[in-house]
Amino acid sequence: MRIGTNITLSTAPHRVAEDVAAAARAGLDSVWTNQMPGHWDPLALLAAAGPTRGVSLGTAIVPTHPRHPVLAATEALTVAAATGVPLTLGLGPSHAWWITDQLGLPYASPAAHSAEYLEIVGGLLRGEHVHHRGRFFTVDTELAVAAPDVSLLLSALGPRMLAVARDLADGTVAVWVRPALVADVLRPALRDDQRVVVQVLAAVTSEPDVLRERIARDFVAVESMPAYRAVLDRAGLQGPADTLVVGTEEEVARELRAFADAGTTDLVVSPLGSEGAHVLEVAREVGSATMAG
């Protein structure tokens, strides 16, 4: 299991190269970022890393609706060429509260929309001339630029989205899940050679309940988002605080190993608290052990 971490959403672009280099020095495999309303653009933020060594880069995720698929493919190839390292383009339909309520865009049939989007992006990343006429997009173009090592993931938790990820992407990326859901739902829905990327909030701490209370308060809105509510209910969880990996060093290591045993290929660890380096070191050791085994 490969271990990565996130660039925080408050990271200024001029700090990205330093943060990516620090992750490489720490022995991590990857650095990721995502899109949140009012924050930096994720692909532009990764491009700010410049020429990079020792780690791969990824987005988890870039929302599909605000970006035309041709633009998304072009940006991904640009980032891969600018940094010189493998890029994982994680895409997803996001949520109606942002796409419609804040941006004024229609949010209908996210699985069908995602399928068309991936057909176009995937073809362009493979260097094909894409002829597509569908419900959401009409495209007849090709790109004159290319870059190696760009892979494609789809944020997928339910059966319809997982089917799209299986057929049109290199795997899925998920958040607010436990190892049991990876083993019982995500892994069986995909091909054996596909990736399962899971994002977790983690900390080595003597006060796990304090962190759970904080996350329950800070992320209470997650509980009412339909896609997340469905996956939390499927796992018998009340909210995102139930997915935290927190406790002693031994407890955290055991939890992280459970993700590997469940079929997680990449674990993206977002440290909580002031001892972020400690939990990342525990995760790195777990990742190295699972790869060696």
Automatic annotation (TrEMBL):
It comes from the Bacteria. CDD domains: Tetrahydromethanopterin_reductase. Residues 8-265 form the Luciferase-like domain. InterPro entries: F420-G6PD/mer, Luciferase-like_dom, Luciferase-like_sf. Pfam families: Bac_luciferase. This is LLM class flavin-dependent oxidoreductase. It comes from Actinomycetospora atypica. The lineage of its organism: Bacteria, Bacillati, Actinomycetota, Actinomycetes, Pseudonocardiales.
